[in-house]
């Protein structure tokens, strides 16, 4: 790997890494959601492993080769460099699983958490015991050793199976079909970027340029999903202070004789949805939405959405 490729890899990867961190940090400040906070912690761990395990190893290898260091001690150094960064990656995998549970509104159990870390820890310790006998980076070629490659691939495959089962299968149990569609699109983009990184990793066994490509994709792959999440939440997020109490809404519905469909539309109005968004969400025509809103305004004798929302909140004080 020449110095130009090394510098481009480091600079580009750091730009992508800091961009993903900045986006996830901003999200967890704006939205009080568990999976958004988990995503931020996931990004921190991803960055730490990438910075230490990938960029650190590649950079150190380049400079050691440049001054022609060889021998058993150097071989051990390259074996241990990525090994010490593995705990960051293991925890990042766990946080990735946690996000998938939280986004489909399920709790990740303590039993599952314990079993995940026990299994991975056992594999990790076995790998640590064997590390003096397997070179992760061979000093004269920089080839990824098959045993270590399989360690990462097997654990990541297990993680991805759990995560994408939640996204593509168990998300169907959510009542909010608009959210289900978003989750599946979000999962598809995530999966595509993960597959791209795997392709670069496999090709990198024989070509160092692909190792550089894998490293940059590794840091970049969360940016697009984070931007998608930001757009989705900017439209659909309801701050806890804006939620209308159930008994408040029920009293309002009873007082004004609001129908079931009108109630669904009122729920969307309270969340700040436009007529077009309500139409898409409830699978009814735009004109039907306008007709229902007109009827709601007639029944409640209000002239706009703000007056309607304020009228509903008045029932909380009665």
What does this structure look like?
There is one protein chain. The protein is built from 13 helices and no strands. It has 318 residues and is mainly alpha-helical. The protein folds into two domains: 3-236, Rhopdopsin 7-helix transmembrane proteins, CATH 1.20.1070; 240-317, Arc Repressor Mutant, subunit A. Helix 1 (3-30) packs parallel to helix 8 (223-236), helix 3 packs parallel to helix 5 (146-168) and helix 11 (275-282) crosses helix 12. The chain starts with a helix and ends with a helix. Mean pLDDT is 79; it is low at 136-144.
Mean pLDDT: 79
Proportion of residues in helical segments:
over 70%
Stated plainly, the CATH topology of the largest domain is called Rhopdopsin 7-helix transmembrane proteins
Strand content: under 5%
Radius of gyration: 26 Å
- Dominant shape: elongated
Biggest sheet architecture: none
> Which regions contain 5 or more consecutive residues with pLDDT less than 50?
136-144
Q: What structural class do you assign from the helix and strand content? A: mainly alpha
Short characterization:
With 318 residues, the protein is mainly α. Helices cover 77% and strands 0% of the residues.
Question: Which descriptors apply to this entry?
Answer:
single chain, 318 residues, Rhopdopsin 7-helix transmembrane proteins, Arc Repressor Mutant, subunit A, 2 domains
């Amino acid at each position: 790997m020449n110095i130009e490729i090394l510098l481009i890899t480091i600079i580009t990867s750091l730009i992508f890494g800091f961009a993903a961190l900045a986006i996830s940090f901003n999200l967890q400040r704006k939205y009080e959601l568990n999976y958004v906070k988990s995503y931020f912690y996931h990004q921190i761990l991803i960055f730490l492993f990438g910075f230490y395990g990938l960029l650190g190893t590649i950079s150190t290898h380049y400079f050691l080769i440049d001054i022609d260091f060889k021998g058993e001690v150097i071989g051990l150094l390259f074996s241990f460099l990525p090994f010490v960064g593995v705990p960051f990656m293991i925890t990042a995998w766990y946080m990735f699983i946690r996000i998938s549970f939280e986004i489909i509104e399920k709790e990740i159990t303590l039993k599952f958490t314990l079993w995940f870390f026990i299994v991975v820890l056992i594999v990790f310790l076995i790998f640590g015991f064997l590390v003096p006998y397997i070179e992760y980076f061979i000093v004269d070629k920089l080839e990824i050793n098959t045993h270590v490659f399989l360690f990462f691939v097997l654990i990541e495959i297990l993680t991805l199976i759990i995560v994408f089962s939640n996204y593509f299968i168990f998300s169907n149990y959510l009542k909010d079909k608009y959210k289900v569609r978003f989750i599946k699109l979000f999962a598809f983009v995530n999966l595509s970027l993960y597959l791209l990184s795997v392709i670069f990793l496999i090709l990198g066994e024989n070509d160092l340029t692909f190792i550089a490509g894998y490293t940059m994709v590794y840091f970049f792959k969360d940016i697009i999903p984070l931007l998608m999440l930001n757009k989705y939440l900017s439209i659909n997020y309801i701050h806890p202070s804006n939620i209308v109490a159930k008994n408040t809404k029920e009293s309002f519905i009873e007082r004004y004789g609001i129908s079931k469909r009108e109630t669904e539309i009122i729920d969307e109005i309270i969340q700040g949805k436009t007529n077009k968004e309500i139409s898409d969400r409830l699978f009814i025509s735009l004109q039907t939405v306008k007709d229902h809103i007109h009827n709601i305004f007639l029944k409640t004798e209000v002239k706009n959405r703000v007056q309607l929302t304020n009228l509903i909140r008045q029932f909380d004080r009665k």
